[in-house]
Design goal:
With 235 residues, the chain is α/β, with parallel strands linked by helices. It contains 6 helices and 15 strands. A 6-stranded mixed sheet has the order 3-6-9-12-14-15. A 5-stranded parallel sheet has the order 1-4-7-10-13. Strands 2-5-8-11 form a 4-stranded parallel sheet. The longest helix is centred in the last third of the chain and has 26 residues. The protein starts with a helix and ends with a helix. The model has no long low-confidence stretch (mean pLDDT 84).
Length: 235
């Protein structure tokens, strides 16, 4: 048990640059406490002490602001950073070395008593405020962007962003290093808008050349529309 605690404290130090000492982690980290409480709740749940398990998880929620159902399964060296507002459902599975930020929901999308919550594989990073819903799988060493809403499986070594979540990057090899830049992720919508803006500027230049060659004077309405488009893209 003590070896497991040591490995989890070591993992927190690697994943959180604000962690200064083992004592600080032990006394001040709600994510660390939430998982300690959960281990007890999960033990009680698996031995049919359902009510006691729920009472213990409710106490953990009151103390830490993190709600983990006693039936959820957690691996080793999982770190919930800050943690306020994190919710993990009953049939969720979180494997080793996963990093979860505040406001994350691992939720269900069915009323059936089956596997209805996500499976998060080894080494995944889930950004702040992300919602991962339903019986889906997040592949090993993938990253879920801040605020993403993930409703489908995410392959291993991928990056998923947006609402609904889209795969915007796939790595050929797993990146096992802890990358905390979960805010610096590709934005496919912004890229598409920038591409459209570039094409519009190019088309405007071609049309201007045609006007000049054919000695056509643009009407005031056309000028107004051009100015409106330019103002829109400036915003």
């Amino acid at each position: 048990m003590f070896d497991r605690l040591k490995s989890e404290i070591k993992a927190i130090k690697q994943k959180d640059p604000a962690a200064r000492s083992t004592l600080e982690i032990f006394l001040c980290y709600p994510g660390f406490y939430a998982l300690l409480f959960h281990r007890v709740s999960h033990w009680l749940w698996n031995r049919s002490f359902k009510l006691l398990a729920r009472m213990n998880s409710n106490l953990a929620r009151f103390i830490t602001g993190i709600e983990i159902h006693p039936g959820a399964t957690f691996g080793e060296r999982v770190f919930i950073d800050h943690g306020m507002g994190v919710v993990v459902g009953e049939t969720a599975i979180v494997e080793d070395d996963v990093l979860i930020y505040q406001g994350v929901i691992l939720g269900g999308t069915s009323t059936e008593k089956t596997k209805r919550h996500p499976t998060v594989k080894k080494g995944v990073i889930i950004g702040a405020g992300a919602k991962v819903m339903g019986n889906i799988t997040i592949g090993e060493y993938s990253k879920i962007g801040t605020g993403a809403v993930v409703l489908k499986d995410v392959p291993s070594n991928s990056t998923c962003v947006g609402v609904p979540g889209r795969i915007v990057k796939r790595e050929g090899k797993p990146n096992k290093e802890v990358d905390l830049d979960h805010d610096k992720l590709p934005d496919p919508v912004a890229d598409a808008i920038q591409t459209l803006q570039k094409h519009l500027k190019e088309n405007d230049a071609r049309i201007r050349i045609l006007y000049e060659k054919n000695e056509i004077c643009p009407t005031e309405d056309i000028r107004d529309e051009q100015r409106d488009l330019e103002d829109l893209f400036k915003k």
